[in-house]
Amino acid sequence: QVQLVESGGGLVQAGGSLRLSCVDSGNTFSRYTMGWFRQAPGKEREFVSAINWNGHITFYSDSVKGRFTISRDNAKNTLYLQLNSLEPEDTAVYFCAAGAQSVYERSTYKYWGQGTQVTVSS
Description:
Layout (H helix, E strand, L loop, with lengths): L3 E4 L2 E4 L4 E7 L9 E6 L6 E6 L6 E3 L7 E6 L4 E6 L8 E7 L12 E2 L3 E6 L1
Parallel strand pairs: 2-11
Antiparallel strand pairs: 1-3, 3-8, 4-5, 4-9, 5-6, 7-8, 9-10, 9-11
């Protein structure tokens, strides 16, 4: 029932910005904690950011804190991640996920999108 589709990835130079979106085609979006993870080829999928159901509580990994901003619009069933001051090490496929019991642990998320590629050139 929950189907997540990411968009907004692309190629950007270091220091640039992107805004990622994740749309849920279902109708239970507002019930879920939402998160963003990323994965580079040959590396583990890692936590990036998360947000609680009403957007009042946010979480960030140390590597993105101060540069990325997570937000949500429950009326539009959409999760966002604003990526600013991008660095080459931010290059990865970015995935949105829903339904965590523990926001930092990927195994606790119930639903995942297919990902969107972010590539940052130097």
